Amino acid sequence: MPDRDVPRVLVVDDDARVRRFLTSALGAAGFAVTATGIGAEGLRLADSRPDLIVLDVELPDLSGREVCRRLKAAEETAAIPVLMLSGVFTDVADRSQALEDGSDAYLTKPVTSRELVAMARALLRTARAERRSHEHERAAEALRRRVAQSKAMVDVARSITASLDLQGVLDRIVDEACLLLGARRVGIAVLEGSEPGPNIRFRAVRGLSSAFAQRLRPLSWRDGTTPIAIQERRPVWTADILTDPAIELTPPTRAVIESEGYRAVLSVPLLAGDRPLGAIVVYRDLVGPFSEDDIDITQVFAAQAAVALENADLYRRASERADKLTTLSALTRLITGAAASREVFGAVAEAAVRLLTARASQVWVNDPASGMLRIEGTVSVDPVLGEHLARFKAISHGDGLTGSVFATRQPLFVRDLRAEPRFLNQGIVAEGHVSAYAGIPLVAAEGAAMGVLSLLFGERGDFADEEKELVRLLADQAAIAIVQAQLYGEAERRRRQAEEMAENLERSQGQLVKTERLRALGEMAAGVAHDFNNLLSVILGRAELMLRRVHESALVRDLEAVRRAAQDGADTVRRIQEFTRTRRTRAFERVDLGAVAREVVELTRPQWELEAQSRGVRYEFSVEGTAPPVAGRPEELREVLTNLVTNAVDAMPDGGRCTVGLASEREWATVSVRDTGVGMEEDMRRRVFEPFFTSKGPRGTGLGLAVSWGIVTRHGGTIEVESVPGRGSTFVVRLPVPVALPDSVTGLTVPPPTHAARVLIIEDEPEVQAVLADMLREAGYVVTVAKDGSNGLDRCEEEPIDIVLSDISMPGLSGWEVAARVRARFPTIPIGFVTGWGDQLDPERLAGTGVSFVIAKPFQTLDVLRHVAQALTTAQPGRA
What we know:
Radius of gyration: 39 Å
Helix content: 40-55%
Number of strands: 28
Strand content: 15-25%
Strand order of the largest sheet: 13-12-11-16-15-14
CATH topology of the largest domain: Beta-Lactamase
Largest sheet: 6 strands, antiparallel
Number of helices: 27
Low-confidence stretches: 581-585
Shape: flat
Distance between the termini: 22 Å
Number of domains: 6
CATH architecture of the largest domain: 2-Layer Sandwich
CATH class of the largest domain: Alpha Beta
């Protein structure tokens, strides 16, 4: 295979002796020479793009001038320098004509080797200079385009975050796309509904007729590039949509295209994860392909349009949720305040129709005396449909769909009533009034069937889980209303029971409000946890680095206190995330329950010893027995035992004894916490693990034991309590003993780097960047830092890098984008994320991006070095 650093020369001369001379002279000068004596063959060989062509003027088939003209006319060969030779045409006019034909130089025969080689080298130098000049011009133009693209992307991103006006944002995206792509026509199409066909509607267009959005409605998934791109979730373009055999245009679509006058089309899907939302479409009047740059730019705009649509959908769903909560709250108030049950049933039916976009809703109430279900509330949006429904005043238990729901006490959702013979009122189906049905049993708290809430719909898709849950909530409200009506009809002897139910309902409302408040706080906590993790990363990292550098005992003690405090802060953030369900489960490790129990006793000592002494009481604590090690999270199990010990102290206000017992029961390890306190009544004992239930009054949150129950359950164990009033309580935690135990994280060592591996850190927080760099440098790594994703990608191009560590949330390119580009450009370089969202990342997305590992902030030196060493050990050799 020829060396591409050796200049390649094509010699075209019909004189064999001259060909041999030219080949020998140029070959001796270091050129790779290919020779032919035929002009047509020379044109064919020129397709291989030689660096120089030496061309005789006189050839047997085509003249050298004709060959030169054809070479210069073709885009692929126009830049190749041509040196023409002639022993016949030697005057000035001949030279001028050759130059006009496109020749770059002209020599007359006979020519010396020295003259030939010198001219060849001069022509090659000139060609290289021209190529460099063109490359610089292209680079400058590309830079100008990138700057314009970046500005447009930033402007659009600001519009997305600053405005709830979806139409305005989509219009802005279309305008910017037209500007950057140099396109006159751009549109954004949105996928609507859940029908099997392509229900596509254009929300924003530029450069197209006012009727375009109404007229262009694809009839199949092959009817144009846009439905194909949406269905296949990939960019699709055609140089000529009217003649492309891969596009199966229907007559209506072809008519729209011909009337609009465009030919080339590029469609890029708008995706929310893997879910298609629509497409952004670029139209051109002339036939021709789209470049990779066109596709890349359009994909960026597609991503921004997808974010805008997703934000609008989230806002819509939040508004709908607020509307639902308001309606449910109003129903609750109505139920608690209305004596007339029919008023409540009518309100439930009306809420069902409005919130679920149903055509009709009915509340059926059981009449035990007659064995019938009777209608107590009906709402219909169609008077004709209402007349049909009025014909059925009551049905027997088990009759029709509604009777079946009552008899089985199971919800029933039917999308196509035409295929459901049990539906009694087939007349309204035949006349097209309704097509779908939903029925939910009204079940009292004690499990008794009270009636049915039924809804009728027009043509629709499958019932979503959210819709089913809302119907259940409305059914619960109707069931409560039935119970309320029965209570109002009871004699005076049931008055206290009715009051008690009202009080329970009020407490339930308070608990719902508290739950919603904690949910909101949880969302806020999840948002700020990322920032806290960045701060804790700096504190924890610096403390660990200082511990490695200092030896004075006082400083070591103080630094160890700082490190422990930072680690405790990190654990606190994780516990908040755990309770608010914003963190995925982390890997288990080997846990010594005896060590955890002893640590908890010491950690709580200030409460049960020092503080108790100030009140004049005394506690005795002991840890007894042994238990086998288990698999789990030590900090979580420590939290469980801390909660149990703290509760034991609270249950002994006058002092007492608390025993932490360890034991083994076949495949279980058990930990018990036994106190000699006040004990609990049976009702309290049954509810002790319920969220928000507390016996401590304002001092308690009612979350400690609920969180403990959740932790133990996640560990595959159980927690139980036994208690006798006046004689104390015993909480018993049982955890499974696994066949094989995972390694303890604290016992792992980190192998030193086998060579001065080169680590690139991409992190926009300077302090976090600095502490991470110091950790790695002290371990023997060569560290390069970058303040953002673009800067990091530049470093990858400029310097040899062995491994990349990147944050995720950064200005400009995100960590996801950096990982994708590094993986595409340098597939052998391992990539790791260092992020405050570490425990929340989707493992499937990580695997798809090619990220080797994730280090959660705040990080410890051992974690960082271990992950880096393992990634470098398993990675393939990087770039030379």
